[in-house]
Amino acid sequence: MTHRLRFALLWLLAGAGLTVSACDRPGAYGDASSIIAAVSQSTWTQVEDSVYRALEPTLYTVRDEKTFTVTHIDPADSSRWAQLQQFRQLLLVGPAQDRWIAQALGKARSDTVTPPAVVQSFDVWARGQTVTIVVTPEGDEAAAFASQLDNLRNLYDEQFRQLALRRMYVSGVDTLLNDTLARRVGFRMLFPDVYKRSVKDSVFVFRNDNPDPSELIRQVTVTWRSPLASPMEWDRDAILAWRQELVDAYYADEQVLDTTRVFAAAVELGDSQGYEVQAVWQSPPNAWPAAGPFILRAIPCPAHDRLYLVDAWLYAPGKEKYEYMIQLETLLDSFICTDTAPPAL
User: Fold this and answer.
1) For 115, what's the count of Cα atoms within 13 Å in the CB-facing half-sphere?
2) Cα–Cα distances in Å, from 133 out to 22, 153, 256?
3) What is the pLDDT of residue 344?
């Protein structure tokens, strides 16, 4: 799938949120990345390690960070189950005849279920709740649950990505900026309306530091060099050096590279191939301590005879960063060179 098609599909999915009227229920609590797994103790004992491996993959931001957190509960523990059944993200496992499974299936949009199967219901015990049900054959719960773990991981990740996009574009898409950039500069990017733009020389900075830059900053910087260099000239070190030149000359926030872990690889970008580096920036010695992840792409545009550099970085101290990394990745994926060379700046 090309990156343009992937972005279009994600954008369409982001607008296809499922809502169900549930005015008679309280609002769900908890985060979309926090999963309450209601599984009998006997089944959980057999699959616990496999569940954590499958449903708690890690992402390196400034450290290894879980993308989801799973908390087990035995639904036979009626007092604890009563406390947690209004969580936003529930995972139920068991035969269809189990009471809690039957209640959730009653709200499902699927008439017939042949185990093992994964089914989802919404707003079962609370508004805004998603209940994912693994329906198992009676007497074979552990094996059936284990067979569905890959499907569950993909389902949770895809739905979380949709949520991240809905939240990012809740203010709307800045289509005017997108068209202006294409006409005057030669590239398109789909920013939310809340991003502020500044331009100096041929460096375009797009920044969202709401509600408070001491709590959260998302920034994307675009610039280019011409003529288009040979791919041999834009390896990891060259791209990182170029980024540091940008930081030193144009960024309001002082940054240096944290060399602890640097990931670099060629990436497919539509009909062409670019180069991507992911690493961590940090404040220089003797400055106020700060750090965050960044994603850096070198993108060739032969029609312009330019090599673009697109730098997306995040500052989110004390916050889970997976959602914000999805948002930055989506902005990078929305970058498209126009087919004709823009007027000279």
Assistant:
1) 21
2) 19, 13, 46
3) 61
The DSSP 8-state label assigned to residue 123 in this structure reads: S
What residues have CB less than 8 Å from 226, skipping those under 6 apart?
304, 305, 306, 307
* E strand or H helix that includes residue 249: helix 236-250
Q: Tokens standing for 33?
A: 């990345």
DSSP letter string, 313-344? EEE-TTS--HHHHHHHHHHHHT-EE-SSPPPP
Q: Is 30 left (phi over 0), alpha (psi -120 to 50) or beta?
A: left
Using an 8 Å Cβ cutoff, are 317 and 88 in contact?
A: no
What is the band of 18 on the pLDDT scale with cuts at 50, 70, 90? Answer: very low
Instruction: Give the 3-state secondary structure of residue 97.
Output: coil
pTM over 0.70: yes
Angle at 164 between CA 318 and CA 83, to 5 degrees: 70
Count of Cβ atoms closer than 10 Å to residue 114 Cβ = 7
Strand stretches in 61-186, DSSP E: 64-66, 69-73, 89-94, 117-122, 130-135
Tell me the C-alpha distance between 301 and 261, whole Å.
29
List, in order of start, the domains of the chain with CATH numbers: 17-167 (3.30.379), 171-337 (3.40.1000.10)
Q: Please tell me the distance from the alpha carbon of residue 205 to that of residue 223, in angstroms, as a whole number.
A: 9
Cis bond before residue 192 (omega within 30° of 0): no
Contact between 202 and 220 under an 8 Å Cβ cutoff? The reply is: no
What is the mean predicted confidence (pLDDT) over 139-159? 97
Q: At what angle do helices 3-14 and 149-168 cross, to 10 degrees?
A: 80
